[in-house]
Amino acid sequence: MHRGTRRVLLAAPLLAAGVLTACSGSPAEAETESQRIGPLGAYFESFYGGDLSEAEQQARFEEQNERTEELIAQCMSEQGFEYRPNTGNASFSVGSGEEWDVESRDWVAQYGYGMVTSPGMEEAEQAPAEEYADPNADYVASLTESEQIAYGEALSGPMPSEEEMAAMEDGSYEWDWTKSGCQGEAQHETMGEDPLQGDEFKGLQEDISAFYEGQPSWPGMAEVDTAWSECMAAAGHSGLAVQADAQNSIIEEMNGVYETMDPEGEVDQTALDAIGEKEVELALADLDCREQTDYRSKVEDITFEQEQRFVDDHEAELDAMKAAAEQGN
Prior knowledge:
Layout: H1 27-34, H2 39-47, H3 54-78, H4 105-111, H5 121-126, H6 137-141, H7 145-156, H8 162-170, H9 181-191, H10 202-213, H11 221-234, H12 244-258, H13 269-292, H14 295-328
Helix pairs in contact: 2-14, 3-9, 4-13, 7-9, 11-13, 11-14, 12-13
């Protein structure tokens, strides 16, 4: 497959200090540093199952998926249709993160930030697609056109309206299980409501978002950002106020290329390759400046201190949210 067919518009992320791996010391020391988790990060792990092993997460996914498909089959039968549980319609994978090493000069020299190219991308795009056989395909094909429409609505709900399609485009769409047919009912019964997204914790979720959005104003951050920015300017990359600006500048250029794809979905590979070269150059300068200014260590210390203050101020709410997540799991 030609790499030009890879289309994705990328959002500029807020790069928290915790995503940066250790930048000094021996490999063993680096591994230990990279696994440090802040006071608030420890809560996130318990919220979203990060404290489970990969095998435990896999087992839970397979159990939920099997049960969901059984409920869908039961629901479709009640609607007057045949449905064979389709457990091959979803997969589960957990990335170890070991293939990403944004603090390794060799890795950065090859991938930059991993935006234009990344580990495994070429292999994935060149590998033949696995054949997928829907066990219900023959049955659906045997139905009349009107029966197929009724089958689809029974299975996953009516087609989205123009307003819902627009909401999907701008990211404001909220999935409603009550309007999603047998699949919605089954998923709701199997997984239940996400307790973390309910009204009970809405205020806390907003406080967490506001907390991280305020990172640039945390005590000590301005000095760290200024030192990094001055280092980058001296290396020929001026106009970058904070470390996230470097990667975000590449994302913006990539989005510009993907937004001008031709009708066949082919991207301007020459333009993308040029961005890739620029990405590597910028990422290497960024790596040098992070090392020279001890950026990661300083930002991590600041972040952990601020996270502890947040936890101290919201401990009861965080503990309640943790308990709800554990009960939901």
